[in-house]
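stage 2 :: seqdesign
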């Protein structure tokens, strides 16, 4: 049960920072009877003090992601005065969650993976954050691999899907096929 709880906490929690780390610690211990990690254990997981864990648990209760039962953890072998708190993990997938390993909801667009090996190793290549070709560009003369001079619009963002600088809207400086250049155009 703890793997599902961790996944749900990662994808659907509204908690941030230390609070989310504490939630992940609780989710890590979640089982059929709840979770009862000690405050010291949660502090170790989150790398904070015990007081910060207590504040984080208070915040998780405000977010209705966890319910705390004071000194209700442990079993019959633990003395009552030494029992840790028991936490009930309340998070669940929202109704529009696809319940796959990515926990996508209808409000989240699907993540598209880059198919161009250049885009994975070269930051910025193939990203959709570039303006269209022709915006804020200058014209300069370049020599193409075939030895001819052509005008090229120079911009740090004027690149084709192939990852090469564009000479015009359909041709890159290295002569890639137009179909390859136009994939993102």
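stage 2 :: out
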């Amino acid at each position: 049960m703890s793997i599902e709880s961790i996944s749900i906490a990662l994808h659907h929690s509204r908690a941030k920072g230390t609070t989310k780390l504490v939630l992940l610690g609780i989710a890590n211990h979640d089982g059929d009877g709840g979770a009862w990690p000690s405050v010291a254990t949660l502090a170790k997981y989150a790398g904070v003090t015990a007081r910060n864990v207590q504040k984080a648990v208070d915040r998780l209760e405000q977010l209705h992601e966890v319910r705390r039962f004071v000194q209700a953890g442990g079993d019959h072998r633990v003395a009552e005065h030494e029992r840790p708190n028991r936490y009930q993990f309340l998070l669940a997938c929202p109704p529009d969650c696809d319940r796959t390993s990515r926990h996508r909801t209808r409000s989240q667009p699907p993540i598209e993976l880059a198919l161009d090996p250049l885009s994975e190793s070269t930051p910025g290549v193939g990203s959709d954050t570039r303006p269209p070709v022709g915006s804020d560009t200058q014209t300069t003369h370049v020599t193409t691999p075939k030895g001819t001079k052509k005008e090229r619009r120079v911009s740090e963002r004027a690149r084709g899907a192939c990852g090469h600088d564009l000479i015009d809207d359909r041709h890159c400086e290295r002569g890639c096929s137009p179909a390859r250049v136009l994939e993102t155009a």
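stage 3 :: structure notes
- The mean pLDDT is 74.
- The helical segments are 2-12, 17-29, 39-46, 50-62, 117-121, 178-181.
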